[in-house]
Amino acid sequence: MSKEFTFAIKSICFDEDYRPSNATRITTNFANLARGANRQENLRDTLKMIDNRFNALAHWDNPKGDRYSVAIEIISVEMNINGESAGNGLPLIEILKTNIIDRKTNERIEGIAGNSFSSYVRDYDFSVLLLEHNKNQSGFSTPNDFGDLHGKLFKSFVNSDAYKAHFSKPPVICLSVSSSKTYQRTENKHPVLGVEYVQDEHSLTDEYFKKMGLQVRYFMPPNCKAPFAFYFFGDLLNDYTNLELISTISTMDTFQKIYRPEIYNANSEAGKLYRPSLKHRDYSSTCIVYDREERSRLAVQQGKFAEEHFIKPYQATLEQWAANYSL
Questions:
Q1: Alpha-carbon dihedral of residues 300, 305, 308, 314, nearest 10 degrees?
Q2: Distances (CA, A) of 199 to 36, 177, 216, 278, 309
Q3: pLDDT tens column, 174-206
Q4: What letters, b where the CB count within 10 A reaches 16 and e where it falls short, cover 314-327?
Q5: Sign of the CA dihedral 135, 136, 137, 140?
Q6: Distance CA 141, CA 139 (A)
Q7: Among the listed residues 43, 44, 42, 57, the one whose alpha carbon sits nearest the alpha carbon of residue 100
Q8: How many whole angstroms separate alpha carbon 191 and alpha carbon 58?
Q9: pTM score, two decimals?
Q10: CA dist 266 → 23, 228, 258, 283, 285 (Å)
Q11: What number of other Cβ atoms are within 10 A of residue 85's Cβ?
């Protein structure tokens, strides 16, 4: 039987009043910030950091450094199979969408979709499937089809009518560079993205995102401490405006300073040859409360949850669809 996969998109504002819904993935970084006794202070300080970083980068015609503000939406994506909600309405994919508020012109400028990225299937792949595959093995390896299903689901979403109805450009995802790789600075420099870094061998995350149809380049924006991995379709440097790129940089630089201060809030910046490390001790704290150990622990739980409520119940349907899927 032919199965039609469609997607439903839901949006909620990420502001100082944000509270994670019961349906959201509990390992999502922004959900972690919005829990606990310090939740509102965390959110307020995070949003202020994003605005300050944006204005520092968008400094032209901005003498007081307060012209712009960034409004962020949390985009939750549910998948439907023949009109029925797969996984009981789980948000299989969650990304962020930025919008830029220009206080000088009173304009609301569309930013970039993507930024952060989280996925139940990705949790399953990395926290369940990969661990099981390497159990009691002498060396690390990945299954032959590792990431295939997830990649096809993501490409199907980006090419869907739902995506095109909500977003005018393809997504850009900005993540931390890998602590298992060494990056080398080049002479290439972009006015907003900053200096470009390269590496000889892609990380496991790079390869996983390649199956999602995404290329990767590594840039260290002005006044950042380390390069970021930018995953994109098309031409990163020419397909997006400076303000669009700044909205992603300011958002993800802020989040990474909170999540990985050892790398992105270090007291010295990356050199010509750079290998990031979460064991680095010369860094500053943002004073924003973030429970990294909880997130790592819950990733396994959510991977198993995805297996129980999505992978196993729809396994035959997913395999049939993936076998016949092509753009």
A1: -110
A2: 39, 11, 11, 19, 38
A3: 999 999 999 999 999 999 999 999 998 999 999
A4: beeebeebbeebee
A5: positive
A6: 7
A7: 57
A8: 11
A9: 0.93
A10: 35, 14, 11, 4, 9
A11: 12
Q: What are the angstrom distances between the C-alpha of 149 and each of 44, 94, 166, 323?
A: 38, 17, 24, 9
**End-to-end distance of the chain based on CA atoms, in angstroms?**
20
Q: What is the DSSP string of 105-173?
A: TTEEEEEEEEEEEEEHHHHHIIIIIHHHHHTT-SS----TTTTHHHHHHHHHHHTSHHHHHH-SS--EE
Contact 290, 39 (CB under 8 A): no
Tens digit of each residue's pLDDT (9 = 90 or more) over 263-319: 999 999 999 999 999 898 899 988 887 666 666 677 788 888 889 888 998 888 888
The CA-based angle 163-166-168, given to 5 degrees, is: 85
Please tell me the total number of residues recorded for the chain in this structure: 327
CB contact at 8 A, 80 and 8: yes
Residue 151: both structure tokens together? 């990649």
